[in-house]
Amino acid sequence: MVTKSKIKAELESILPKKNVLSAIEECYVYSQDGTNDVQSDVLPDVVVFPETIEEIQSIMRFANENRIPVVARGAGTNLVGACIPKRGGIIINFTKMDNILEINKTNMTAKVQAGVVVGKLQEEVDKFGLFFPPDPSNLKVSTVGGAIAQSAGGPKTFKYGTTKDYVLGLKVVLADGRIMETGVNTIKNATGYHLEQLFIGSEGTLGIVVEATLKLIPKPETTNVVMAYFDNVEDATNSVTNMIDKNVYPSTIDFMNRNTIKTVEKFYPCGLLTDKEAALIIEVDGLNISMETQIMRLETVLRLSGATDIVIARNKEEQEKIWTGRRASFGATAKLRPDVLTNDMIVPRENISKLVSGINEIAEKYRLIISIVGHIGDGNIHPQIALDLENSAEVENYEKAKKEFYALTLDLGGTLSAEHGIGLEKKEFLAQAVSPEALEYMKKIKMVFDPNNILNPDKIFDL
Ligand SMILES: Cc1cc2nc3c(=O)[nH]c(=O)nc-3n(C[C@H](O)[C@H](O)[C@H](O)COP(=O)(O)OP(=O)(O)OC[C@H]3O[C@@H](n4cnc5c(N)ncnc54)[C@H](O)[C@@H]3O)c2cc1C
User: What digits encode the pLDDT tens for the residues 64-97?
Assistant: First the structure.
């Protein structure tokens, strides 16, 4: 086994000393990520901040020869323990590789280093009249590398898809330090296997993504936001199909249940109607000239679907006010108990009201405090559970409830994770969600790319 001091000395010969951290307190910070309910007391040996691809290649060659685990890290905001270095080793932090290398208006593509912050990319492409829709809701900090590795989605998935729909090509440093370029910088590609897609959702277990070529789309000329209240969840979910019937195609259809509405209003009052069972936040976009018609049609569909109250934003300020309520839901739920956990199950949309009512019943059975939000247009629900992680009875109840949430989701034809990933948090349930053959081939693929199992070991599945 290679000692910590040998790893440090070797890495200091590869990178400038200032880009190598190894003090206990520094390593402690990088032993955790954004996940509340998965903790580890194992520290990484060294955390490095490379500035070049060549440095990453040298790190990987050294790690592979000496069987040292390597965990890539963006902003560390994933919610499934995907960055936790369970076996110590080296953390490669991407904060110094955050350059946008090219924005090509004609081709509608961007080429970026993996550490680019998603929100920064959105701002920069906006200046060219272009748009990069995938939006993990914490886009002000989360990175493109992290979004690719977690297959991140976000509110605009209903109309625009997730990160996987925007990755055209990748440059990846492989476990042995070689570089693989895969994919293209064109919009279409039917040239052999789409290896670049393998890295999406791979959680850093197959290779270190250093650059990505991303598809961009034209920026919608304008947007507006509508909030609609319903007396039952089923009417709210049915309204989505009714919108499609009438050719209304929103970019976002988000959902808050009664508990969420009440909790937000309690801590961040913004005029929500607390006696309603469900609220939808609907964002529509398109040409300026189309907006009045879109909103009129949407309002009609919502009324026919059973909406009792409809708020149409009249300006940007009112749009923001509507979104503030939705965005405040996690923080508001967090105020109910010392800790808050969230999850991201998804079912075919036709089963979403069964999922919501089933989750409520399970939470009640285990006496959990729960608020439910979600990207209802996609069938994706985020139950937010307020609890005290120091209270073993509450944790035990949560663990039991979680098993039942997943069983219900799978029964309803859905799957474990829509956009957060598997990491350490959900891996014990993976075999229930994928076929034995699929799991077998996932493991074989891992062994092809990383025969020494040094790339983010223990994540997604055990070998
Ligand atoms: C408040 C909050 C709200 C959120 N909302 C959403 C949401 O709406 N939708 C959504 O999809 N997610 C959401 N998330 C989850 C999180 O934002 C996403 O998973 C995000 O994309 C992670 O980016 P990151 O840079 O923090 O990645 P990290 O957490 O640093 O890393 C995530 C994974 O990517 C790997 N990785 C990182 N960089 C690389 C690289 N260069 N090469 C290979 N592997 C790499 C890591 O090893 C790890 O496995 C939310 C998180 C928070 C805290």
Answer: 999 999 999 999 999 999 999 999 999 999 999 9
Domain with CATH 3.30.70.2740 in the chain: 336-433
- pLDDT score recorded for residue 147: 97
The finding on whether 172 has its CB within 6 A of some atom of ligand 1 is no
pLDDT at 139: 83
**Which residues make up the CATH 3.30.70.2190 domain(s) of the chain?**
222-330
Dihedral sign for Cα atoms in the order 409, 308, 321, 132: positive
For domain 100-218, the CATH class is alpha beta
What is the Å distance from ligand 1's center to 233 Cα? 30
Q: Find out whether the beta carbon of 334 lies less than 6 Å from any atom of ligand 1.
A: no
Is 75 close to ligand 1, i.e. is its CB under 6 Å away? yes
Q: Does domain 4-93 have CATH number 3.30.43.10?
A: yes
- Kindly provide the b/e burial profile for residues 222-249, where b requires at least 16 CB atoms within 10 angstroms of the residue's own CB: ebbbbbbbbbebbbbbbbbebbeeeebe
Q: Do residues 270 and 256 make contact, with C-beta atoms less than 8 angstroms apart?
A: no
CB 224 within 8 A of CB 322: no
Q: What is the model's pLDDT at position 39?
A: 83
Q: What is the pLDDT of residue 412?
A: 98
Delimiting residues of CATH 3.30.43.10 domain(s) in the chain: 4-93
27 Cα–ligand 1 center, Å: 20
Fold of 222-330: Alpha-Beta Plaits (3.30.70)
In the chain, list all ranges with CATH 3.30.465.10. Answer: 100-218
- In this structure, the residue with its CA closest to atom 10 of ligand 1 is 136
Spacing, Cα 433 to ligand 1 middle (Å): 21
The segments of the chain whose pLDDT lies below 50 read: none
Model pLDDT, residue 40: 87
Pick the CATH number of 336-433 from 3.30.70.2740, 3.90.1150.10, 3.40.640.10, 2.40.160.20: 3.30.70.2740
Cβ of 382 below 6 Å from ligand 1: no
Measured in angstroms, how far is the CA atom of residue 12 from the centroid of ligand 1? Answer: 28
Q: What is the distance between the alpha carbons of residues 135 and 139, in angstroms, rounded to a whole number?
A: 6
Q: Are strands 70-73 and 90-93 parallel, antiparallel or unpaired?
A: parallel
**Cβ(153) – ligand 1 distance below 6 Å:** yes
Picking from 175, 179, 163, the residue whose alpha carbon sits closest to that of residue 204 is 175
- CB distance 76 to ligand 1 below 6 Å: yes
pLDDT at 161: 97
As a whole number of angstroms, the distance between CA 455 and CA 21 comes to: 20
| Residue 76 CA to ligand 1 centre (angstroms) | 6
- pLDDT score recorded for residue 309: 98
User: Does residue 145's CB lie within 6 angstroms of at least one atom of ligand 1?
Assistant: yes
